[in-house]
Amino acid sequence: MKRSVTLFISFVCTLLFLGSFNSNVNADTKTYNIGTDVTYPPFEFANDKNQYVGIDIDLMKAIAKEEGFKVNIKPVGFNAAVQSLQSGQLDGVMAGMAITDERKQKFDFSKPYYRTGFVMAVATDSKVSNLKDLKGKRVAIKTGTAAGNYALSLKKKYGFKTVTFDDSDNMYNDVVHGNSVACFDDEPVMQYAISTGTKLRIATKPAQLGHYGFAVMKGQNQELLQKFNEGFDKIKANGEYDRIVQRYISKKTIEAQKAANTKANSEHTWIGLIQKNTPTLLKGLTQTIYITILGIIGATIFGVIVGLLGVIPNKLSQGISTTIIYIFRGLPLLVLALFIYNGIPTLTGTKISAVLAGIITLTLNEGAYTAAFVRGGIQAVDKGQMEAARSLGLPFGKAMTKIILPQGLKIMVPSFINQFIITLKDTSILSIIGILELTQTGKIIIARNLEGFKVWAIIGAMYLIVITILTWISNYVQKKLK
After folding, report:
1. What is the pLDDT of residues 335-366, one digit of tens each?
2. What separation in angstroms does the CA of 236 have from each of 43, 240, 256?
3. Which residue ranges does UniProt annotate as crossing the membrane (predicted)?
4. Domains plus CATH for the chain?
């Protein structure tokens, strides 16, 4: 028991040390963590080489180069980026963020760097032509965006229902596939999507014309904000700003993108998809397996400790075990991940990396399930075994390690392997905090080629292959233990 506690404490301390070391390196080298969206072309998206590019990305890098600082771009999604900024996990957000009076209450904005307005788009063959036609129908919006808030402000007046999505691609596809009749987005983003093949058309004129700005938390990172403004003025003066914008919105660029999409070996074929994205998908799978292994190690140590507490003949320890299992098994994994990644830094002021937050989340959530079957496996051993051992003069600890645990282990092993499989699948939920595991990698690829069905089929096959291998291992281990 003492060894298990020591192992768990060592595991947690190592993770916390790595997380704090990462933060210190960023501070010493003046590297700023900048959050951005996952799917928001032409402002941020992955190109055909799976490199993150776009107007926002290139502007931020050009300004950083001009002002002599470094940036660590984190494509976590708009909603996650805003939450991470509020919790102190990020230094700024550059994600096509419209400057509004409401946002100014919480954030300090840079000088406006792009003019925009909100438009409504419908399927190309839709009969909806104006806002009045939305009555009683479903409209898709993107979580946390100004365009989404604009749609919500019209909801009561025009009598439509809304459904929310975390990324633009799923929002667009909901309309293309007929689940929703319309969606709202910023005009330049919508125009780019339509120009590059999305089967939508704009049905309204731009409304609430405004500007995009780079955001930091109110009263914080003022040095970074000043550097951004000074660097922005410089790239405007030397023409770099115009070159960056034209790189993504000029007719020549859009035509080149269309031509690339029509090639026989493009990403619109199964072979093309696999050939172009295999390195990126394997990188995402490697991250998934890495987080799974560390998560299962932490969950095993944590689960064994809590499970053993539940069988010790002491009401206090049993109560602690039951409470821990009840809390962490009852909390949804997504809620727990967001709380650890965004909630704890808000309370403590200490940054936690997304990977570290993910590992802690898996340790606590999966560890609670592990504790439950550890406790159950021990309790499944006939009580007479313990009574016989104690009657022979063996102390409780030795009776547990020499008599009970060896028998209980045979009962627990299948559950351990199954929990490994469950943990592997649960890593997909961690994409919500911006970890670039296999699921998040898929979202980024789909944002570029809009081949959702094919990409998810490939990713599903990858998960099945890994899970099949783990199942074979499980069956082999069970046979050896019989």
Report:
1. 999 899 888 887 877 778 888 989 999 999 99
2. 17, 6, 26
3. 289-312, 324-344, 455-477
4. 30-112+215-261 (3.40.190.10), 115-211 (3.40.190.10), 270-481 (1.10.3720.10)
Q: Find the radius of gyration of the CA atoms of the chain.
A: 26
Specify the pLDDT at position 393: 72
The single-letter DSSP state of residue 144 is T
Report the mean per-residue pLDDT for the chain. 84
User: What is the share, in percent, of the chain residues with pLDDT greater than 70?
Assistant: 87
Pairwise CA distance, residues 481 & 76, whole Å: 44
Res. 94 pLDDT band, cuts 50 70 90: very high
Average pLDDT over residues 84-99: 90
Annotate 35-88 with DSSP letters as a single string. Answer: EE-SSBTTTBEE-TTS-EESHHHHHHHHHHHHHT-EEEEEE--HHHHHHHHHTT
What burial class does residue 49 get, using C-beta atoms within 10 Å of its C-beta: 0-12 exposed, 13-18 middle, 19+ buried? exposed
Nearest 5 degrees, angle CA 294-CA 295-CA 296? Answer: 95
Amino acid at 113: Y
- Give the type of residue at 106: K
Cβ pair 362, 426 in contact under 8 A: yes
**What pTM value is reported for the model?**
0.71
Q: Are 404 and 378 in contact (CB under 8 A)?
A: yes
Dihedral Cα 465, 467, 473, 476, nearest 10 deg:
-100
Q: Which amino acid is at 420?
A: F
Tell me the mean pLDDT in the region 206-225.
Answer: 93
User: To which residue do tokens 């074979």 refer?
Assistant: 472
* Confidence category of residue 83, pLDDT binned at 50, 70, 90: confident
Locate 321 and state its tokens: 């075990």
153 conformational bin, left if phi > 0, alpha if psi -120 to 50, beta if neither: alpha
Under 8 Å between Cβ of 261 and 196? yes
Vertex 39, ends 163 and 209: CA angle to 5°? 75
- Report the phi/psi class of residue 450: left, alpha or beta, with left for phi > 0 and alpha for psi in -120 to 50: left
Give me the pLDDT at residue 13, please.
56
Contact between 157 and 183 (Cβ < 8 Å): no
Mean pLDDT of 181-197: 88
Distances from the Cα of 205 to the Cα of 86, 110, 113, 393, 459, angstroms: 33, 27, 21, 86, 39
Band of residue 20 on the pLDDT scale cut at 50, 70, 90: very low
